[in-house]
Every structure is written in C-alpha cells, then in structure tokens.
Amino acid sequence: MSKFENINTKKLYKNSRQGKICGIFSGLGDYLGINPLILRILGIIAVIVTGPIVILGYLLISVLLDDSPYTIR
Q1: Distance (Å, rounded) from C-alpha 48 to C-alpha 7?
Q2: How far is CA 32 from CA 3, 9, 56, 73, in A?
Q3: Which of 36, 52, 54, 73 could disulfide-link to 29, CB 3.0 to 4.6 Å?
Q4: What is the C-alpha to C-alpha distance for residues 25 and 66, in angstroms, rounded to an integer?
Q5: How many whole angstroms separate alpha carbon 44 and alpha carbon 71?
Q6: For the whole model, what pTM was predicted?
Q7: What is residue 34's three-state secondary structure?
Q8: In whole angstroms, what is the distance from residue 68 CA to residue 41 CA?
Q9: SS3 call for 38
Q10: 14 phi and psi, to 5 degrees?
C-alpha cells in the first residue's frame, strides 16, 4: 500500500451479482448512492437519443471495469 492510497477511497466496480445485463448501472448506482433503476431509465433514454454510441460505450465499460470483489447490500 503506497502512501498515496487512502483506505476510504471509493472505487468503481461493476456489480454483476445485482445487475441485469453486465452490472454497469448497478455498480454505478452503488458508487454514487443512487437507485440503479434511475440510471437504467436514463441509459434507455440516452440510447434512444444517441443510438449506438451509448451501446458501444456500455460495452467498452463492461470490458474495462473489474467485477466487484465484495457484495454491496
């Protein structure tokens, strides 16, 4: 552990245990303290407005993020 790391540092993970597809919105909801349903609705609206850009971003994030090492309840 380096001197720059803080024990209370929050890290963004995907939460595939509670997620619907890949767990991106569930993990983001855990990180921000927001209900994942709100984020899913905003994601659907973003797909309708922008089309495949959001879908490609979602797939890219699902590849880059690590799965949560612990269960958040």
Answers
A1: 40
A2: 26, 13, 22, 14
A3: 36
A4: 13
A5: 26
A6: 0.67
A7: coil
A8: 22
A9: helix
A10: -85, 145
Angle separating helix axes 24-32 and 36-50, nearest 10 degrees: 120
- CA-based nearest residue to 19, from 64, 72, 63: 72
Which residue has tokens 């973003």?
Answer: 46
Q: Is 14 helix (H, G, I), strand (E, B) or coil?
A: strand
Residue type, 16: S
Owner of token pair 């994601």: 43
pLDDT tens across the length of the chain (73 residues)? 555 555 667 777 677 666 677 778 888 888 888 888 898 899 889 989 998 888 888 888 888 877 777 655 5
